[in-house]
Amino acid sequence: PVRDGSVEGVILTKVDATTEVLARESAANQGKWLEFVLNLIPIPTILVRPGSGGVLFVNSASRRILPNLPAEIETLDPNAFYFTDLSGSRVARQNWPRFRAARGEELYGLQLLWHTPNGAIPLVVETRRLPAVYGHPEVVAVHYQDVSDLKEAETALRESVSELQREPDLR
Length: 171
Prior knowledge:
two-stranded antiparallel sheet; six-stranded antiparallel β-sheet
């Protein structure tokens, strides 16, 4: 305090925040590292919130099946982007793989067609629920394997077999 124009005493405190700053930087770097790793995975993968299916992360490989992906995946035009099952029936939005997985359903080998303005892409979908660990909340990973090449090969094989069966000299 100051009395009669003179200082009677001073209290100085020093707090070393180095540990806290380093911990925050380390956590931020871990997040960046995880994004880097997920972006290296060649399979389109999204991470979603359990319960809501809200999108937390979309990896780089997802750009192959969503080349014009909006900044927020929630804003996709339902007339331009949608799923159908293999019989051609449109899948209701609430039954899209990410929403089914977010509700706790595990999907293994689910075959769907993903329709975009550029055409339909055959996909095999797998999901995994990742438990809350190491201070991170529970999350659901949804993997979309593009099987276009496999479907083209199957079609070519069927056509070849059919052609061979029609050829009398090759029977």
